[in-house]
Design a protein that fits this description.
Shape: globular
Low-confidence stretches: none
Helix content: under 10%
Distance between the termini: 27 Å
Strand content: over 45%
Radius of gyration: 23 Å
Number of helices: 0
Largest sheet: 5 strands, antiparallel
Structural class: mainly beta
Length: 306
């Protein structure tokens, strides 16, 4: 694979189990510059300036999670992993909510880093069981800067960085079009909806390919260019069902859907970088201005440095 010699240097943090790998982009592709091993699986990663801050997993089903470190928050400094001192149990004491008897053990934890780089830890152990455990009795503690502050108000984090604008392929055109569905055998009739007409090298197809046969499909909501050549796009569609208006994302190379990238996460980075994180199998591909720079296997998630 040839990498553009103008590719800028950008730093990423890549999580793989209990390892945090620092990766740098550049004219030679992707280079792992440093690996830090932590005492438990990493659940969340944020940045406080140039330093990553991590929350260790409290998922009892995770083989890499260590109960002695459940919910622990720490910084990754030049010397390695430095955990914040664990707060006294009394910090999180609160009366049992009147509207629930559902107790979460171990508690649910969350990490927040605000725009002013305040580092907060959230904890919840009461909620209700539906599709999973929905916690609704959170307490938040500011770990840095001091002094310690306790509140029931959720800290506010900055919005995620958006995706850069990628040039469209000259070989491929995309256009939203109104589709009038045929009457179903039972006589029912669907209202017209939007589909995407994809033309590559003179051949046109309709996306998604199963829009007529998928009874839950509602409409194509839009698309985003991810790579210029070979052309790659993300298509946003809405669906009806248990949760009407639910948005689903699919990735296409040319006009062909990539099943392996179903529900893949798209992360915007600085200097026109994006990362595409696939889950089956786990891997991250990094792109600059629509060109592939490299692939990182066995990645749980990835985050660009500010």
């Amino acid at each position: 694979m040839t990498v553009d010699p103008a590719t800028p240097k950008v730093q990423l943090a890549v999580v793989a189990g209990t390892e945090l790998r620092f990766v740098e982009t550049g004219p030679t592709g992707l280079v792992i510059t440093r690996t830090v091993t932590l005492p438990g699986a990493i659940e969340t990663l944020r940045w406080a300036g140039a330093e990553p801050v991590v929350l260790l997993s409290s998922d009892a089903s995770d083989p890499d999670a260590d109960r002695a470190h459940f919910g622990e928050i720490g910084k990754i400094t030049a010397t390695g992993y430095v955990p914040f001192p664990r707060l006294p149990e009394a910090t999180w004491k609160m009366p049992k909510p009147k509207n629930t008897d559902d107790h979460q053990d171990p508690p649910r934890w969350h990490l927040y880093v605000t725009a002013s780089q305040e580092i907060w830890q959230g904890r919840c152990e009461w909620g209700f069981v539906g599709e999973g455990m929905d916690c609704d009795a959170w307490i938040y503690a500011r770990l840095a800067p001091g002094p310690l502050k306790i509140t029931r108000k959720e800290p506010s984090e900055p919005r995620p960085r958006g995706l850069p604008k990628i040039a469209a392929s000259k070989r491929m055109t995309l256009a939203l079009a109104k589709f009038k569905p045929r009457v179903a055998p039972d006589g029912s009739k669907r209202k017209p909806y939007d589909i995407l007409k994809c033309t590559l090298d003179g051949k046109t197809v309709e996306l998604p390919a199963d829009h007529e046969t998928d009874g839950s499909f509602d409409s194509v909501a839009g698309f985003t260019w991810l790579r210029t050549e070979p052309p790659m796009i993300q298509v946003r569609s809405t669906f009806n069902g248990l949760y009407p208006g639910l948005t689903s994302y699919a990735i296409y190379e040319g006009c062909d859907k990539i099943d392996a990238l179903d529900s893949a996460a798209i992360i915007g980075g600085p200097k026109d970088m994006i990362a595409i994180h696939a889950f089956e199998p786990k891997r991250v591909t990094v792109h600059w201005k629509g060109q592939l720079i490299g692939t990182l296997p066995d990645a749980d998630f990835v985050s660009f440095a500010p």
